[in-house]
What does this fold into?
Amino acid sequence: MYELLRGPLATASFIIFFLGIIYQIIRFFTLTRKYQPVSRINGFTRTDKKQNKPSPAIQKLAKRKGNVMGMEPNMAVITTIFHILVIVTPVFLLSHNILILESWGFSLPSFSEAFSDFLTLLVLAFGVFFLYRRVILAKVRAVSSLSDYLTFLVVFLPFITGFIAYHQFFAYKYMIILHMLTGEIMLVCLPFSKLVHMLYFFLNRFFLVSEYNFGPGGRVW
Amino acid sequence: MIKIEQKPFQEIVDCIQVYDHILNVGCGGCASVCMGGGQKEVNILNAELEMYFDEKGQNKEIGSYTVERACNMTFLEELDEVVKDYDCILSMACSAGVQFIAERFPSKPVFPAINTVAIGVDRDIGLYEEKCRACGDCVIGYTGGICPVTRCAKGLFNGPCGGTNEGMCEVHKDIPCAWYDIHERLKAQNRLEDIYKIREPMEWQNQVQRAVVHPDYAHRYMEEE
Amino acid sequence: MDNNSEMQVDTQKIRDLINQDKSMIKLMLKVCAHCSMCAESCFLYVHSPDDPKYIPSYKMLNSVGYLYKKKGNVTWEDLERIKEIVWDNCVLCTRCYCPLGVDIPRMISLARKICRSQGVYKEYNT
It folds into this structure.
């Protein structure tokens, strides 16, 4: 079982993951089209009228009130940090990099094990926050379904099992198998479930024309 | 839809500075769509005003409420309770909505935070173009779908003036000449005869307040003739 | 609305309308992470925070999402319910915020288009 998960299944899940990601990127670019912004303003803009504003400092702080930082600051900060960590933690983990070095001959830099431990605990703490949000807050419960809870498990089981396996709290052999299995399930599920928002966050918010996009945006559906 | 633009900040401050409890009313209709007076703009303006007055050492309470549409009295009913705690109302709805608010609360001073600019279209995100002056006698059927009242600086009805310059208006080099565009459009449709007839100039119908009565409801509001 | 009870819902027409944008609809329904961060950007929700029916993602999932899942096989009751969601609970002010860039107003207006294709729409004189 271990050999199967460590060897061919691991390679297969990575391949499916990358192919899935590429497929979704291609899908985005085929479903959207380039958008030419208007080259000319037809009409008078009232530039003569002094559109005076308060000081830039005030404007900057006030703008925050209108956007998501003003509305739900906790969630905005936590979710940003969480999403960065959920990628950074496994990618720069010493154990993973040793395995990659053994299998494929290269490795990425790694954090110290203590730091990775700390990051894992942070991820798990944020997981508890998300679960609380999904179960307790009425507005999130209203749009939640079984698939959301399953996705939650798919994402957090690798972290939980990895943490337990690393510390060898109990049943190491089964934990490590479970860790690899759940990790591979997550990789395979990612491009084909709601976890694809990992990709579409960037695609949608950087490329589409919208009030909320980062940058000019040059595509529309 | 109606397109609006926020007033200069100082002008808004001058209106409300004598009041301590101000309610900022936004509108979820036209004002929201052109990003001039929706919930987000209300929040931002409130934050700016609060910080501005804090710097000046004045303590003001500025509340916020966004109604679905300020141009319909039923949607203003929910303001009745809210307004009691405030001395004055600042509104980011279009001027029609602001007038309705003022009518509903005649004892409260009501100030517009925006200028109503035009009946216009969404050309692109953040770019809105005036298309209609609400003259009351639409002639665009004869001018290839281009309004000479709105787009011609002189409101001409029978062709361009002598100042048309390579398709551009003499008023500003970046403004296309409406009559040039009308001619080109009708030529492409083979309908140039429409503008060869001389038309009477527009009899502006916007000198007195107008009301529109839907024929199905005429019996409710007008006496039988 | 009397004629509606005698006529069948034209489910094929609904399917055709969905199929015009099928990939985009499917993708957006999948990308929606059900996070409800769109809630506070809707001023209707802000006025009644205990009522989930105004949450933009809820509106989208229960209108277009429902039509898509059912592959257009809906009843008149379903359409009336969807009509309430997309006309009474939404003014299409187009200011919904989505951290994942889902175009919620587009989906709501698509639901309205589908309802209109079946003769179901908000009437302002009732």
About this structure: Residues 89 and 115 of chain C are 15 Å apart (CA to CA). The mean pLDDT of chain C is 89. Chain C has one domain: 8-117. The longest helix of chain C spans residues 56-69.
